[in-house]
Design a protein that fits this description.
Blueprint (H helix, E strand, L loop, with lengths): L1 E8 L8 H15 L3 E3 L12 H7 L6 H13 L2 E8 L8 E7 L5 E6 L5 E2 L2 E2 L12 E4 L4 E4 L8 H9 L4 E6 L7 H16 L2 E6 L10 E3 L5 E4 L11 E8 L1 H9 L2 H4 L6
Helix pairs in contact: 1-3
């Protein structure tokens, strides 16, 4: 199956109207013939927010933010994936939640980030609650999506679980912090997850100044399929990244290098 994937390498809008920004990217994506549009992590956060601020921002999965995303998806005939701050019904800090909405405007899947980033002076666990399950797999008419978030990329077990569940495209919406070696880690880990699982991997990075600001798509042989907003070099600018995905390449890669048939899970 061949389809067009669009990555919205975006930051927080100056006017604070996130849904209007989503609409603008959706209109651009529809014009390219894209089937799926993906946004980065921290889509609704203007900066690193305190727990009270996150509480005030958090919504349920049937709240006005998701309703707005659903309306945009339906209006522009797109599947849309992104992230939000989700209310914790137990009363604790909210969840960092990824979602997938279909082109009819229905929520088709969600995932609460389970690996929280406590490193290099950042303490995500002090502001958010960790999910209790690995990423989810979402069937679509054009592929099977595996959904994870940012720091999950550093855990190969999570990616393998999604591949074993049938995913042929892994999405990593991310706000990947910049710093020494961080860009090379981002590139290398995305490529590694693609090669070791013989599938497509897309990393959608936030375009804010604190982050590496490079969105990438790798194919099942580790080949670079798309990079940055219309340039072959890393870019921190906002823009729409377009990738042509052919899921038959997943089958071909796994036939040529049958690592899934050669696995020895009884030894691991």
């Amino acid at each position: 199956m061949q389809f067009t994937l669009a990555l919205a390498q975006s930051g927080y809008p100056q006017d604070g109207d996130v849904l209007a920004q989503v609409e603008r990217f959706a209109e651009q994506a529809e014009a390219t013939g894209a089937a799926l549009l993906c946004f980065p992590e921290a889509l609704v956060s203007p900066r690193e927010l305190s727990v009270p601020e996150l509480h005030s921002l958090a919504e349920t999965l049937d709240g006005p933010f998701i309703q707005g995303i659903c309306a945009t998806a339906k209006r522009n005939h797109l599947w849309i994936a992104g992230t939000m701050s989700e209310v914790n019904s137990a009363g604790g800090p909210p969840f960092n939640t990824a979602f997938v909405v279909d082109d009819a405007g229905a929520l088709r899947g969600s995932y609460q980030k389970c690996h929280l980033y406590d490193a290099h002076g950042v303490r995500e666990s002090e502001r958010m609650t960790a999910g209790s399950q690995l990423g989810v797999v979402v069937p679509t008419p054009f592929c099977t999506l595996g959904l994870a978030i940012c720091y999950d990329l550093r855990f190969p077990e999570a990616a393998r679980a999604l591949a074993l569940a049938g995913a042929d495209l892994l999405l990593y919406p991310a706000a990947w912090y910049d710093g020494p070696h961080k860009l090379s880690h981002w590139e290398t880990l995305l490529k590694a997850r693609a090669i070791e699982n013989e599938l497509f991997v897309a990393g959608i990075c936030h375009a804010g100044e604190r982050f590496v600001g490079e969105s990438l798509v790798y194919g099942p042989l580790g080949e670079l399929v798309a990079q940055g907003p219309g340039t072959d070099a890393p870019s921190k600018g906002e823009g729409l990244v377009i990738a042509r995905v052919d899921t038959s390449a997943v089958v071909s890669a796994r036939d040529a290098m049958p690592v899934f048939r050669h696995r020895r899970p009884e030894l691991y």
